[in-house]
Design a protein that fits this description.
Helix content is 64%, strand content 5%. By secondary structure, the chain is mainly alpha-helical. Among the domains are: 101 residues, no CATH class; 136 residues, no CATH class; 100 residues. InterPro entries: Znf_SWIM (IPR007527).
Length: 594
């Protein structure tokens, strides 16, 4: 198996029913045209609706799949169909995966001169690569200043990295976006690219080098502000990039050692950028004002906690963002007790409870959870942390409590708890959790798993599950309903589910029609003929092949019910009325419908 601890169930868990269905169709159609593995990286090309294939990238680690990304524009629930198709190839046809050397292995084959020549040839072939090399050389050759405690004296800020290439990169991204839009490209070519540049500064902050992070962020922000009008004409908005810049600036400022004069310079720039770019850098300004010496903050970090946390006046909307960034820095500096004080003071319950667990203070975490835990997400995070600490019974108790709380992760929490309960031999808890998952997102797989867990109690559990799907109106579960109804032979329920569907769901309707031919041929005939006639009467020649597919279903129902003469009469009437539609008549002949 290419991916450790991976199964088809994992795919179904991470993709909605429609994406899985379409991904399986892509797999069957051999849309995955290449699949290469280089160490812990799997890369695939998948044919889709665009001229160029989509690029799928799967990153692995020792425990299994770490991340999955695709270049398509899909932004709905779970994995896209291209990722699903790639995963299915990995599962079902691992022999077609081409194993290639990793980058490290390739470079190890070269000596110093060969490596230099390789880079020179790559730059000659891809001239813009020189800008990326310039930026990375700057990052490599200039050592990162050793991270210092926020309590030590602050030296004058001194950047050692040349920030100009980062501003140039931003300008190039914006120019490329304009060209793409002028060529008719519809998607957003800006945000992901810009966030990648900002991430360079974040990486420096995480290494304790706030000074160089600030230098890079100054170049990035200035370039955005100066050149944004060019992309604003095409409808680009700056909301997402401003939010990311706020976070990155805040972390850099709280990591760097700044003099009062430098703080003033940064504040002047922020105010100018806000006015010119119509942006809100309030979070950055507050981080600049407070630093780590803000008296209410100092009191909290010493354990003196009040209801107002670290705030003297009105608590701003960005208070949570600022608290989370401070917690990130405190954790990085291993200031764990101060972390706990701040998390408690600022109401960051998930961070507070999980840090207690990570520090091995399991009993304290469980006790605090009884009074402080308010959401499923907090319970899920703590339960996973307790599992990492090998405190499995406590993790199960926390997960079960979490299912009773409000939140948006009931499906994931239910599945996770069910697996843990089975591992601990607690079938009752496993059944309860799996039922909660099914309630949030029904599927045939979970339905069958519940049958296995219910054992001799299946009859009552089955009735409950069928009632759930009959009343469930969540988006994207039509396929799950049909799968379960057909699995149970409940043809009338399946018919009621798809009867008024648009032909966009044709594959699902076909399946119900195939199952209903012997049970209710009249419904198949009336529904299929209605759909075909809507297309034919409208003269939509581009959809005539779909009309013929519907008529094939109607014909099958006529013949199955012993009404061959009725089919012949209906077909003759169609041909008499629409006989001059040559494309339609050609399809009739081609599909054997004459």
């Amino acid at each position: 198996m290419l991916i450790p601890n991976f199964s088809e169930f994992t795919i179904r868990r991470n993709a909605n029913a429609k994406s899985f269905q379409r991904g399986e169709a892509y797999y069957e159609a051999d849309a995955v045209i290449s699949l290469t593995q280089r160490g812990n990286l799997l890369q695939a090309e998948v044919e889709g609706n665009e001229v160029k294939p989509y690029q799928v990238r799967l990153c692995l680690n020792n425990e299994g799949l770490n991340s999955a990304n695709c270049t398509c524009a899909y932004d709905l629930d779970g994995w896209c169909k291209h990722i699903v198709a790639t995963m299915l190839v990995c599962m079902r046809r691992p022999e077609i995966v081409e194993e290639r050397p990793t980058l490290e292995q390739l470079l190890n084959r070269l000596d110093h001169l060969q490596t230099q020549r390789l880079l020179q040839e790559l730059v000659a072939e891809y001239p813009r690569l020189i800008e990326a090399i310039d930026r990375h050389v700057n990052l490599i050759v200039h050592p990162v200043a050793k991270q210092q405690s926020a309590k030590k004296a602050k030296p004058v800020r001194q950047a050692t990295i040349n920030p100009k290439p980062f501003g140039q990169q931003v300008r190039q991204i914006l120019r490329d976006a304009v060209r793409a839009w002028e060529d008719g490209y519809d998607d957003d070519p800006i945000t992901e690219e810009l966030l990648g540049v900002v991430q360079t500064a974040v990486d420096l902050s995480e290494r304790g080098d706030g000074n160089n992070a600030i230098a890079i962020l100054e170049a990035i922000t200035s370039a955005c502000v100066e050149n944004w009008d060019d992309v604003a004409e095409y409808g680009a908005d700056n909301d997402e990039i401003v939010q990311e810049l706020n976070d990155a600036w805040c972390e850099a400022i709280l990591t760097a050692e700044l003099t009062p004069e430098e703080k003033v310079d940064i504040q002047i720039n922020l105010e100018a950028w806000q006015d010119e770019w119509d942006a809100d850098f309030g979070l950055v300004s507050e981080a600049l004002r407070q630093g780590w010496d803000y008296p209410p903050l100092v009191q909290v970090l010493q354990g003196n906690i009040t209801e107002r946390g670290v705030w003297e006046g009105e608590i701003p909307d960005y208070a949570d963002d600022l608290a989370l960034i401070r917690l990130k820095i405190l954790e990085r500096q291993e200031r764990y007790q101060e972390y706990l004080y701040l998390a408690e003071a600022e109401g960051q319950t998930q961070q507070y409870l999980t840090m207690l667990g990570r520090l091995g203070r399991v009993e304290e975490a469980v006790e605090a959870a009884q009074t402080q835990m308010n959401t499923m997400e907090e319970a899920f995070a703590l339960a996973k942390t307790l599992t990492e600490q090998k405190s499995l019974p406590q993790a199960l108790d926390i997960a079960e409590s979490g299912l009773k709380l409000p939140g948006n992760c009931q499906y994931s929490l239910g599945l996770w708890m069910s697996d843990l309960a089975e591992e601990l031999g607690n079938r009752e808890a496993a059944l309860l959790a799996r039922k909660a998952a099914f309630q949030a997102k029904p599927s045939l797989f979970d339905y069958q798993k519940l049958e296995e867990l219910a054992g001799e109690n299946w009859a009552s559990v089955k009735a409950e599950l069928l009632q759930i799907i009959r009343t469930y109106n969540g988006w994207g579960t039509e396929s799950a309903k049909v799968n379960i109804y057909l699995h149970e032979g409940l043809i009338d329920d399946a018919i009621a589910t798809v009867n008024d569907f648009s032909s966009y769901n044709s594959e699902l309707i076909y399946r119900v029609m195939d199952a209903a031919i012997s049970h209710n041929p009249d419904w198949v005939i009336s529904n299929a003929c209605r759909r075909a006639e809507l297309i034919i009467d409208a003269g939509k020649a581009e959809y005539y092949d779909h009309a013929v597919q519907w008529l094939k279903k109607a014909r099958a129902a006529y013949l199955e019910s012993g009404r061959k003469a009725d089919w012949a009469s209906y077909k003759a009437e169609l041909m008499e009325i629409h006989g001059r539609k040559r494309k339609l008549m050609g399809l009739f002949k081609e599909k054997g419908m004459e």
